[in-house]
Amino acid sequence: MPDLLIELFSEEIPARMQTRAAEDLKTRVTNGLVEAGLTYSGAAGFSTPRRLTLTVHGLPEESPLVREERKGPRVDAPEKAIEGFLRGTGLSRDQLAIRDEKKGQVYFATIETPGRPTAQIVGAVLENVIRNFPWPKSMRWGSGSLRWVRPLHSILCFLSDESGAKIVDLDIDGIRAGDSTCGHRFLNPKRFSVSNFEDYAAKLKQSFVILDAAERAEVIWQEASNQAFALGLELVEDRGLLAEVAGLVEWPVVLLGRIEEQFLDLPPEVLQASMKEHQKFFSLRNPKTGRIEYFATVANRETADQGATILSGNQKVLAARLADAKFFWENDLRIAKSHGLTLWADSLENVTFHNKLGSQKQRVDRMAGLAQSLAPYVGADTDLAAQAAQVVKADLASEMVCEFPELQGLMGRYYASAAGLPDAVAQAVQSHYSPLGPSDTVPSESVSVSVALADKIDMLAGFWSIDEKPTGSKDPFALRRAALGVIRLLLENKITMPLTEAFALSGSKIDTSDLLGFFHDRLKVFLRDQGLRHDVIDACVSLKGNDDLLLVVNRAKALSEFLASEDGGNLVQGFKRANNILAQAEEKDGVEYSYGADVKFSQSDEERELFAALEVQSKVIKSALKLEDFSKAMSGMAALRAPVDAFFEAVQVNTDNEVVRRNRLNLLNLIRATCRAVADLTKIEG
Amino acid sequence: MTPTKPTSFQDIILRLQAYWSAKGCAIMQPYDMEVGAGTFHPATTLRSLGSRPWATAYVQPSRRPTDGRYGENPNRMQHYYQYQVLIKPSPPDLQELYLGSLEAIGIDMALHDIRFVEDDWESPTLGAWGLGWEVWCDGMEVSQFTYFQQVGGHDCHPVSGELTYGLERLAMYVLGIDHVMDMPFNDPQNPIALTYADVFKQTEEEYARWNFDVADTEVLLRHFEDAEAACATILAQEPIDPKTGKRIIMAHPAYDQCIKASHLFNLLDARGVISVTERQAYIGRVRALAKQCADAFVMTEAGGYSA
After folding, report:
1. CB–CB contact A317 B149 (8 Å)
2. Is A445 helix (H, G, I), strand (E, B) or coil?
3. Do B118 and A16 touch (CB under 8 A)?
4. How far, in whole angstroms, is CA B198 from its chain's centroid?
5. How far is A327 from chain B (nearest CA, A)?
6. pTM summary value
7. What is the average pLDDT value for chain A, to the nearest integer?
8. What is the ipTM for the molecules in this complex?
9. How many angstroms separate the CA atoms of A50 and A55, rounded?
């Protein structure tokens, strides 16, 4: 059983693309092999900055012979048809079989496709994979037309077993597959041959290349943690950075450096952002002071001076970066202390938010008005909400946020505190962007919530008013995220706030029902992730009051529980039966049976009992709904299950007596109307 | 081999010139117009187009009016030098050639950490883009390394490999200088030793003042329009010169106007008279010129045209 080893060796692959590329290589090659009839027992993909590697174990020597039977024309068919069949199968007449079929004797051809050697299949599959590789961005180089993420230099591709390695015959635009590769660019750049995967991985390691990105990440993490521990410091976890750095080095060497004293008073987030963003450094925190005091950089090599030159170079670059950051921080603080945040807030006049929606300043003014109007729904102080909204975007004009946009909000909070603004305002400055995603924390402080809602609703209503809605995969203004943010703010803080009112308060001229529909779609996605069926949500969304999402969700949750009960499932069947009979009768008679059911036309006990039950339960349901007590309303519906079932068991609705029939149809409508007040059960599937 | 350390800014420039000359590049001189980067030199922009092989290296003074800091910032100036290398088609060992150039200016590969970090290059004003890296030496960006894919809206066939070194920053690193103005321009052992400040401190102040506060924006705007119009006029001429009867397409004179427009836009930008929305429009206008010049150049002999 031969094993396959492939290495595509190129100039440096962007770190962010490596993991995905190794996975794509694995999937595409193994899929191609399987399509060609090969089986394999295992496969693994690897990546380093300069190579994508794939090992596939346990392949057969060749693909199996494939036998295909094809039915031809009848023996007495015209000669032309038979000749055509022979041409199509590549057989001669004496190779055909004749079999008796219902319609007479028929020719059958058995076509055998012999197995192909695995090496041949591998060559064809790999060429196809290389030529069609799904790089996010690819390029040409030199005079060639081949595309790869960066120039591709060599291809290692062979099958190996106990008897040795056989190089796969493959030549792509002048790059011939071989059995050799190169080591580390600087530490051991020599080309060397390998005989199988184990030999390959071992020789790479001798040549200062750790093949597995996970192993490199582990080395970095362990090494940095240990060195930090020795200094009494802790490494600030950053998985994203770790993965990125593991994609920048083949031979990670961790070097720790001290941050100059003069920079230690910068906010830790600023230190971290500056070091991560520009230098890809990890931060080391002193657990006693909470300050970031050291950094860890990861070099791609060992040196005779134990990294001293590299470290001092990195330190120098960092000092220059931090000098910038310190300059921004001190300037910003000075401005915040002497002018508050208003100087910046006013300067947003010159910043375009969107050319059809005006400046940032105009947006902030709209937000302030909206936050003030929404405050009562949230239970927030209206003045504080307006005051906060006026300054929440101010830090966008600060130098620090210009340099590190990802610190928006956070810097604003520092500056708001420095300016002596109330805590609630400072907090809102930081948290009004939240929640940024499905797992981000939702603010709970009322002023923050008001402004966060105003921020998102203004944005949504604004973009709706200029018809810039998300389409398909395109959502350049992250409006889906904004809507989800509103949903989570309302639900997690249990805020009753009819969205149509909020839309009206935003002052944007929009198609309210269209935007509400967008919210409902997002709500469905959100609740589906929480395990609520979409039809259950549909049944609640189509009712009056559907712009109050908290109400919709409470109703949906109660309905979901109800449907899970035995009464619930059965009542839905009863309801649907009533609804179907009604719908048919209404269509046939061209009228709507919507009132006038009278118990005096009842002819059976079941009929009378249903009347009685409906009278009692509709009152129960009505008052429960008034109190938004949905589980009580549901139990009202549950109590209808027995009488409804009994009714359908005993009573024939469509009788010859027109008065009785009409009365029964009107009775069915009572069921329909009573249930519909709770939820639109027609939407329930099954 | 341990390379000797250079002693001055110009020593580094001379070493790069000698290195790339030895590697077969035509050592050209700076283009005699104000440009924002070495890429604007027609030896790069235009020569990266078409099928004819090309290899050049040169220093290009570069002007970025908005980066002026009156000579006070340690490494930010409105006027600085770039070293530019362009080889078409990009040779397979371009990375090794590049690393050799670092050795040549005294960076010992055995002690430093050189990294190729993803950085895709795009010039909206030139309608050009390419893939490559910024090259890090011990965490500091010392060069841009780009494989041109498109210039002036034309696909590059063959592809050029472009290297751009920010000379001051690189030299400061190699020489161990913290503030650009302290850098020795010539060898400090000379009887007349000059620092970067001796050469450029005063001009940085003068230009910063002019760029930020004095440049007459109305005049600049008018010049921009003139350059734009001139470019069109030049390119609208018949290919056959009526005087000589030769086919002479004036791609370079037209491109000069494009360079002018680009620099005027930078000046206007530094004067703060261009709003965010207008910015895009101006960039689009310069790009349109660059494209027309590229269209014209590929119809010339140097651009690979054959009748």
Report:
1. no
2. coil
3. yes
4. 24
5. 12
6. 0.78
7. 92
8. 0.93
9. 17
